[in-house]
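Re-run with default settings, no changes from the original entry. Doing this only to confirm the output is reproducible before filing.
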Amino acid sequence: FYILVGKIYGSKVVLHIHASTFNSLYGEKSHLIQRYTRWVMGLSDAIISVSDEWKQRLGGIVPGEKVISFRNCINLDSFSPPPGNHPVERVQALFIGSVGSRKGAFDLLEALGRLNSRGCVLPTCIAGYEEREGDLVKAGSRLKELHLSDSCELPGTVIGEKKAELFAKANLFV
């Protein structure tokens, strides 16, 4: 809809497709809807993909010259461990992303619960925004049910210095 409005008003349109929703937007639809989607996407002046793989996939739907691969812009230096060989005193796991079913946060909680019930405690931080409304509350409730409150942290969305601290503390990335 916004692409059409933008083009009607003579605006340049840059489209960014989120891979997690693309299959439901395109792949699972009828041929008629796929054709309409290709037409609308083709109206855009550029399409941003988050990887070369997605550039190829999108290039099979719209003219490839419109698709630009634009990787996630993260300053890796601020999240890198200091140089040298440092012995690990304690394992600290970090999951950072959307908290919900799609990215596996609830599966991770279940796995941590299994480990915990066998006497193997894995300190873990599950950080990120909720995938769907109520997912953080649901994750927090499940964390308590599985008796993980002492070993698992659920801070929600983290940015800036707090995010850098979590990366610096962690030595196992999920």
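The CA atoms of residues 130 and 159 lie 14 Å apart. Strands lie at 14-16, 46-49, 67-69, 93-96, 124-127, 152-156, 172-173.
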